[in-house]
Design brief:
By secondary structure, this protein is of the alpha+beta class. The chain is 24% helix and 14% strand. A hairpin with a 4-residue loop joins strand 1 and strand 2.
């Protein structure tokens, strides 16, 4: 018996529903074995395996440059710009928030993680996609933002150590901190910074009347790392493990700090190596008297020129944070 037109219609409708071709039907998506093994949270975020100091990264997100965000030139090589999606999008959102208030502001970013995570030269962490380095905003005496080719080291009074005329930009740096610690998606657990600059930012926030809740949150995560570099030339931000992400280790295991090869002076040597003991002398020997200084001719003080570029002889800093 020949099939009727009604039977053909029924078969066609069944095929349309099963393939998703029928209007309104949800299409079927094919999932690879690798994606299926990551778990629900990792399908969106990627996956952080292990800790920031002993780990790797699967399915990370790449941080892209934009008019409001740049990669600092000295850190642009080797494409160390990968991280969990919450970290990468948080940095992008924070940069856009600073830009909205300061239309010419450009956030400067250093290293995140490699595409697959793992060890990075001159770092102890950044291995599992949850760490990122963000340069301080730098301004001239006139308030113009300066864009150096590397991170710039600052004193607690806001002056640059090796760049006369360059200053720590309190307003933009605080706005960046505020955006990071109040981000709706990522949870910042650490924001490493030197203690004098931490005090400076919190004092500025209180002076301008920033909300107490944001100041308290910032005070919790802004910290100078112990037994490592003080972080006086950039922020090091670390986010927590996303919920339900198996295999992600929140805190690094304690381990002995090591000297980092190729570093010299204050940026690599332990503190005790920088102290020179005074020469010993007999209790009966009077201290040497320094000769009286000769009077100097009065000199006319000239205004310092506004800086354009920082000195190029500064080495790139070592970010040796275990956490």
């Amino acid at each position: 018996m020949r099939p009727t037109p009604l039977a053909f219609a029924a078969v066609a409708a069944a095929l349309s529903f099963s393939t998703g071709a029928f209007p309104g039907a949800a299409p079927k998506h094919h999932t690879t074995a690798r994606a299926g093994s990551l778990g629900p949270a990792a399908l969106r975020f990627g996956r952080s395996i292990g800790s920031p100091t002993e780990g790797h990264l699967l399915g990370g997100t790449h941080l892209e440059e934009a008019p409001y965000l740049r990669i600092v030139p000295v850190y642009a090589g080797n494409d160390v710009r990968w991280g969990l999606e919450p970290l990468v999008t948080m940095i992008d959102r924070a940069a856009r928030q600073v830009r909205r208030q300061y239309p010419e502001a450009v956030t400067s970013v250093g290293h995140l993680s490699r595409e697959g995570g793992g060890e990075i030269d001159r770092h102890r962490s950044h291995e599992s996609g949850r760490d990122g380095d963000i340069g301080f905003f730098v301004r001239s005496a006139a308030g113009r933002q300066l864009l150096p080719s590397h991170f710039v080291q600052f004193r607690g009074d806001g002056t640059a150590v090796n760049w006369p005329g360059a200053y720590f930009d309190d307003a933009r740096n605080w706005l960046l901190v505020s955006a990071l610690v109040t981000d709706a998606e990522a949870h910042v657990t650490h924001l490493f910074i030197a203690a004098p600059l931490r005090a400076r930012l919190l004092s500025y926030a209180e002076r301008i009347g920033a909300p107490a809740a944001i100041r308290m949150r910032a005070a919790e995560v802004l910290q100078q790392p112990h037994g490592a570099l003080p972080h006086d030339d950039h922020f090091h931000v670390r986010i927590g493990c996303p919920s339900h992400m198996s295999g992600c280790v929140e805190n690094p295991a304690a381990r002995a700090h090591r000297m980092v090869a190729g570093t010299h002076g204050r940026r690599g040597a332990p503190a005790h190596a920088l102290v020179t003991p005074p020469p010993s002398r007999s209790p009966m020997t009077p201290p040497a008297q320094a000769p009286a200084p000769l009077p100097e001719e009065p000199r006319e003080e000239l205004p310092a020129p506004e800086p354009d570029v920082p000195p190029m002889s500064l080495p790139s800093s070592v970010d040796d944070v275990d956490g």
